[in-house]
Write a structure and sequence with these properties.
Elements (H helix, E strand, L loop, with lengths): L1 H26 L7 E6 L5 E5 L12 H10 L6 E3 L19 E3 H9 L4 H12 L2 H15 L21 H11 L3 H7 L3 E7 L2 E7 L4 H4 L3 E9 L3 E10 L2 E8 L4 H15 E5 L8 E5 L5 E6 L4 E5 L7 E6 L2 E3 L7 E9 L2 E10 L8 H24 L1
Parallel strand pairs: 11-15
Antiparallel strand pairs: 1-2, 1-9, 3-4, 5-6, 7-8, 8-9, 10-13, 11-12, 12-17, 14-16, 16-17
């Protein structure tokens, strides 16, 4: 009887992991969103999609692109004087008034935390002179990122005929934006103290992204809502070195949707260490005490992939042809790129393994005389023979 019970328990224990995966898979079947996607930020791999290529309004998640362009401008302390023309926009606001002074960094906080349409408009006028020119910049960046089914018409996300995206495209945008450290640090803040006004004074801005407070590992990024688009959300979370980006468009229950999407994604993916053995690469050294130096990777390389996948990324090496002595250990001599489906997903610097001092003048002279001596010895030996 005891043996029979043990056999049943063992059978159940082997079934549990399978049942768990099936339960997790089932948990994304009742996603409330009209469109949804969850991808691996590092590789762009789609882990789950629901109408992920269907074009829809994306409301204020649009401001991910606007804030990204502001971050990439590289002038966070640039001071802007707000004009009435810049504020000709309806909807949510960070409270800007004509005549206020605000930095570009302050506008980024105003967009990502308070979802200020005023902040988005002021950013557009500051960086491009008008809304149409800024929309052109947004669309050019979208093309660069690979957002094939997206069109931006304004910086804030207000409903417009030529303003739409897809869950998949917005996931690509979210993953790209979170690689910008300025953007990432801002989007991950639950609140921030920002100075603006006339004269400027400190205000507290609060992030509307509830996941930052409720989901373990959440690190961003942006909410959105209009009557036409419904509730929209782009989120990012990180666990055990793996970053996922989830998107829902027109989702009545977006917070619950994202918990399910992210949990499901994390159940599928893990970090695997890529091959960083470059011992077969020996770089020639000119004028050194050694004729060459070995090449090693500067760090290990982890790539987030499905746990069940056959992990064999393509590796491309770009390296100098030779080096002049002296060579210091750790000197960067090239790089290696790791590709999956033709896309670069990771890279590592290649460095010299050890020091190679330069040959000193006296050593050079001694070496030359030795070679001359050897030459004449061989010559006389040949003549004697």
């Amino acid at each position: 009887m005891l043996k029979k019970c043990l056999s049943v328990l063992l059978a159940v224990s082997f079934l549990l992991p399978v049942m768990s995966r099936e339960a997790q898979a089932a948990s994304v079947s009742d996603i409330s969103a009209a469109s949804a996607a969850v991808i691996v930020a590092q590789t762009g791999e789609l882990l789950y999609g629901k109408n992920e290529h269907e074009k829809r309004g994306m409301a204020s998640t649009t401001k991910i692109m606007t804030a990204l362009l502001a971050c990439e401008a590289g002038t966070p302390e640039r001071e802007i004087t707000v004009t009435a023309e810049m504020l000709a926009v309806e909807g949510t606001s960070m409270g800007l008034l004509a005549g206020d002074k605000v930095t570009l960094d302050g506008l980024v906080y105003g967009m990502l935390l308070e979802s200020g349409n005023d902040a988005a408009n002021v950013t557009a006028y500051t960086l491009a002179g008008n809304i149409d020119s800024f929309a052109a910049l947004m669309n050019a960046k979208a093309h660069e990122i690979g957002m094939a089914d997206t069109s931006f018409a304004n910086p804030s996300g207000l409903t417009a005929e030529n303003h739409y995206s897809t869950a998949y495209d917005m996931a690509l945008l979210g993953a790209y934006a979170m690689k910008n450290m300025h953007f990432r640090e801002t989007a991950s803040r639950t609140s921030a103290r920002v100075s603006y006004g006339n004269p400027p004074y400190m205000r507290t801005l609060t992030n509307h992204n509830r996941l930052l407070r409720s989901y373990d590992g959440a690190i961003g990024i942006k909410t959105g809502f209009t009557k036409a688009s419904g509730r929209c959300l782009v989120s990012a979370a990180e666990r055990n070195g793996v970053t996922l980006v989830a998107v829902t468009l027109k989702a009545p229950n977006d917070w619950a949707d994202h918990t399910k999407l992210l949990d499901y994604g994390f159940s599928l993916v893990e970090n695997k260490q890529a091959d960083t053995d470059f011992s077969d690469i020996m770089l020639s050294v000119v004028g050194g005490t050694a004729s060459g130096v070995k090449t090693v990777a500067g760090t290990t390389v982890d790539i987030a992939v499905r746990s069940s996948s056959d992990f064999q990324p393509e590796r491309r090496v770009y390296i100098e042809h030779f080096l002049y002595a002296p060579v210091k250990a750790g000197r960067v001599v090239g790089r290696a790129e790791y590709l999956i489906d033709g896309n670069v997903v990771a890279q590592v610097q290649l460095v010299a393994e050890n020091d190679v001092p330069a040959v000193q003048p006296q050593q050079k002279e001694k070496g030359f005389l030795y070679r001359v001596k050897e030459f004449f010895i061989k010559l006389f030996a040949k003549a004697a023979a």
